[in-house]
Amino acid sequence: MKKLRIAALLLFATAAVSAQDLRTNEVPANLQSTFTKSFTNVKDVEWEKKGDVYKVEFEINRMDHDIWYDAQGNVIKSKIEISESELPSAVASAVKTKYADYKIDSVEVLEEGGKKTYKVEIEKGWTKERKLVLDASGEILSDMED
Fold first, then answer.
1. What is the pLDDT, as a whole number, of residue 64?
2. 19-78 and 83-146 share one CATH topology?
3. What CATH class does 83-146 carry?
């Protein structure tokens, strides 16, 4: 039992050190400015800092967005939830061709280092789920059963 308490304490301490939640007034002005110029009509804005990287989570039209910035305000990476109708036709076609009997459940666009990928979660009935990662041309880069 003592080992369990120590492990739980270490886990909590690691989580507390690894990412720090920030109040808006604790976010550098240049980041706030970059963010507000890029995104309007945002809701539920939450900032955190891990090392030298700032992450902002927010919603636009009930869609989740995560943007990672460096201290100078440059976007390092982003993850944006989109609707199925916003998928590029090559991506939608590849999913429907390979998994015709599955339904698209959720879609996220991931962008990092100039590369854009699409994370598509699909489901069939109540029990079968898959997580796919595709590039913009529709090539399946990853296909995992969930």
1. 96
2. yes
3. alpha beta
Candidates 110, 122, 117, 111; CA nearest to 136 is: 117
Number of Cβ atoms within 10 Å of the Cβ of 26: 10
In the CATH scheme, what is the code of domain 19-78? 3.10.450
Using CA atoms, how far residue 142 sits from 118, 119, 121, in Å, is 10, 9, 11
Total residues found in the chain within this entry: 146
User: What is the C-alpha separation between 95 and 133, in angstroms, rounded?
Assistant: 10
Segment (H or E) for 124: strand 115-124
Question: Which pLDDT score, from 0 to 100, does residue 20 have?
Answer: 87
Residues ≥6 apart with Cβ < 8 Å to 92 = 84
Dihedral sign (CA 110, 58, 145, 97): negative
Blockwise average pLDDT, block size 10, the chain, 146 residues:
49 55 89 91 94 95 95 95 96 96 96 96 94 96 94
Give the ranges where 20-68 is alpha helix by DSSP (H).
29-38
Kindly list the domain boundaries of the chain, sorted by start residue: 19-78, 83-146
